[in-house]
């Protein structure tokens, strides 16, 4: 029995010696800077405030050696072996074997890169997490994450947070979480929020709860260093096309503004021309109406004159016959008182007839209008109408203006016949005036003969000369009257066309005046519309010029913005630094784990049990020899 116990003790001593040889100084080959990882565990209270920060430092050694680490710790402990760690003045040292070493240190300062705030409301009243446990009603949870300016470093800018919250669907219904990614995990709803580097979170969760309990809210922070390669060549090509299109649009808008300005000037000229045409057309309509009235009057006079042609010819023949008979009597044996009386009466009748003829011709001449000014106005207005038609904005207006010009041309042909009629009447009036003079002289002689017979021979000789002259004039008058009456009959027959043309001219003048009024209104509306278009084109040109100015260099600004956005997604520069101490080097990774306590109804206190004391090492060693 004792022999066997001694063998066991010997084996134990050999084992201890072997362990001591493994840890001998000769075997300790120190690695200068072994890589390390830091996992920062943060205990939050129910409101999100930091209660305690513990950092688990992980070292990986290919062979046994000594590690040196730094940190402002309240306490440290070895999590891998029972070996003690040396900690003094912020310096941790340990001699360890090959493999991984885990040690935990509790930080003296509780400053985190993020400030977390959680608040709970039930049926509108704010409660603490502890007060909320086991309650029922309408729940509102507000959760905010912001930057903590009191925490040094760039962890807020370089690290992303994944915030997760789990709700038991047996206790929570009608869950709403607008900003969360919601997933079903068994009988739970897991709400997840991703907070990018440099960003915060401000969100709300609502639910109808019964006997409410909830696991703690967890926040996991990891370095976000995405190597994102974006082929933005196609995008920048499109931006370049956009810039070219804006430039072309600006050039086109400038040309459009220039064109509408010219068009506006032309439309204003057209409006002024249309107003002039309207005024001229109104005057033409009035003149044409007057011409039509005058032509009708002349037509009536010519008809009456033509009706008297036979009587006029007969009277002229009688005058000539009487004068010829008088010549024969004067050339005969003598002149009696009765002959003189007959001669006096015949002379008075002849003179009255000639006076009546001259008066009729004067009235006829006065009734014929002077159409020279009207013809000039016709030509001027027709030219204006043709010019306006050439600049007309549409085919209908162009056709109306050309038709009005054609009416004026036709009326000009009618008016061209009036000067010939006027010349003929002037010629007859001249002949009648000469005859009227001769008749007056003859009548004076006859009247003198009637009262004075003292020297009949001398008076007869004188009378003979006057009668001869009068007979010659009467013969010419008879021929002229015959020619005149023939012309008057012909003029009466042809003047019907003039009268009809004058009436057509008056009717056309009214139509032209009405059309010119419509043209004036349309031209005014057109000018106003083009003026508005000109204003709009100018505004468009200003807008495209401003757009061109603002888009100038936009490709560079877009490229900068893309780089900025990618930088915000990618996080930091890729260099990992220690959260614990700036003296720590060769840090491979840093991870943050933050968690609030669960909300649950406290369990009843367990009854105390008698626990047998664990035997000590020496007691176990003594038992080996028993």
Describe the structure in your own words.
The chain is an alpha+beta fold and 626 residues long. Among the domains are: 115 residues, Immunoglobulin-like (Sandwich); 301 residues. Helix content is 56%, strand content 20%. It has twelve helices and 17 strands. The strands form three sheets. It has a nine-stranded mixed sheet with strand order 4-7-2-1-17-16-11-14-13. It has a five-stranded antiparallel sheet with strand order 9-8-10-15-12. A hairpin with a 5-residue loop joins strand 1 and strand 2. Helix 5 packs antiparallel against helix 6.
The H/E string reads: HEEEEEEEEEHEHEEEEEEHHHHHHHHEH
Outline the low-pLDDT stretches. Answer: 1-31
**Percent of residues in β-strands:** 15-25%
Terminal residue distance: 8 Å
Give the integer mean of the pLDDT values.
78
Task: Name the helicity range.
Answer: 55-70%
Q: Which strands sit side by side, in order, in the main sheet?
A: 4-7-2-1-17-16-11-14-13
Report on the biggest sheet. 9 strands, mixed
Number of helices: 12
The radius of gyration is 66 Å
DSSP summary, beta strand count? 17
Give the overall shape, derived from the CA principal axes.
rod-shaped
Structural class: alpha+beta
């Amino acid at each position: 029995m004792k022999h066997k116990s001694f063998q066991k003790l010997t084996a134990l001593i050999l084992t201890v010696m072997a362990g001591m040889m493994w840890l001998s100084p000769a075997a300790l080959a120190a690695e200068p800077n072994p890589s390390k990882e830091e996992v920062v565990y943060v205990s939050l209270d129910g409101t999100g405030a930091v209660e305690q920060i513990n950092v688990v430092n992980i070292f990986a050694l290919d062979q046994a050696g000594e590690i040196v680490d730094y940190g402002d710790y309240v306490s440290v402990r070895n999590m891998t072996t029972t070996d003690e760690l040396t900690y003094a003045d912020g310096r941790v040292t340990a001699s360890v074997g090959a493999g991984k070493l885990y040690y935990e240190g509790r930080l003296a300062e509780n400053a985190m890169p993020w400030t977390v705030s959680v608040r709970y409301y039930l049926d509108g009243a704010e409660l603490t997490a502890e007060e909320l446990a086991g309650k029922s009603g309408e729940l509102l949870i507000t959760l905010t994450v912001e930057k903590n300016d009191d925490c040094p470093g760039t962890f807020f800018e370089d690290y992303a947070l994944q915030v997760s919250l789990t709700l038991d669907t047996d206790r929570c219904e009608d869950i709403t979480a607008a900003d969360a990614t919601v997933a079903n995990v068994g009988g739970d709803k897991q709400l997840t929020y991703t907070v990018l580097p440099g960003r915060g979170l401000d969100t709300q969760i609502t639910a109808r709860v019964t006997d409410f309990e909830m696991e703690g809210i967890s926040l996991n922070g990891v370095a976000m260093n995405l190597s994102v390669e974006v082929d933005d060549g196609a995008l920048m090509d499109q931006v370049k096309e956009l810039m070219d299109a804006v430039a072309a649009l600006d050039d086109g808008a400038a040309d459009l503004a220039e064109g509408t300005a010219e068009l506006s000037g032309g439309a204003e000229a057209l409006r002024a021309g249309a107003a002039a045409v309207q005024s001229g057309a109104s005057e033409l309509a009035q003149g044409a109406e007057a011409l039509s009235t005058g032509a009708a009057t002349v037509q009536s006079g010519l008809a009456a004159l033509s009706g008297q042609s036979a009587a006029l010819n007969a009277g002229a023949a009688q005058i000539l016959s009487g004068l010829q008979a008088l010549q024969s009597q004067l050339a005969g044996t003598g002149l009696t008182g009765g002959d003189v009386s007959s001669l006096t009466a015949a002379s008075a009748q002849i003179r009255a007839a000639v006076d009546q003829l001259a008066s009729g011709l004067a009235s006829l001449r006065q009734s014929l209008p002077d159409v020279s000014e009207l013809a000039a106005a016709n030509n001027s207005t027709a030219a204006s109408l043709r010019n306006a038609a050439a600049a007309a904005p549409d085919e209908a207006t162009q056709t109306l203006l050309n038709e009005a010009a054609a009416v004026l041309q036709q009326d000009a042909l009618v008016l061209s016949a009036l000067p010939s009629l006027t010349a003929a009447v002037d010629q007859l009036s001249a002949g009648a005036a000469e005859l009227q003079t001769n008749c007056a002289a003859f009548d004076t002689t006859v009247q003198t003969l009637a009262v004075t017979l003292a020297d009949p021979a001398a008076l007869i000789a004188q009378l003979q000369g006057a009668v001869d002259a009068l007979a010659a004039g009467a013969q010419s008058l008879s021929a002229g009257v015959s020619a005149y009456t023939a012309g008057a009959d012909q003029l009466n027959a042809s003047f019907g066309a003039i009268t009809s043309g004058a009436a057509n001219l008056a009717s056309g003048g009214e139509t032209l005046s009405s059309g010119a009024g419509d043209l004036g209104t349309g031209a005014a509306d057109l000018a106003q519309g083009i003026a508005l278009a000109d204003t709009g084109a100018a505004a468009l040109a200003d807008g495209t010029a401003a757009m061109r100015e603002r888009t100038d260099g936009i490709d560079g600004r877009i490229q900068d913005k893309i780089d900025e956005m990618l930088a915000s997604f990618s996080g930091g520069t890729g260099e990992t630094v220690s959260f614990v101490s700036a003296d720590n080097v060769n840090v491979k990774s840093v991870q943050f784990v933050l968690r609030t306590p669960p909300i649950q109804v406290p369990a009843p206190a367990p009854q105390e049990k008698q626990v047998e004391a664990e035997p000590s090492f020496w007691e176990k060693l003594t038992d080996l020899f028993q």
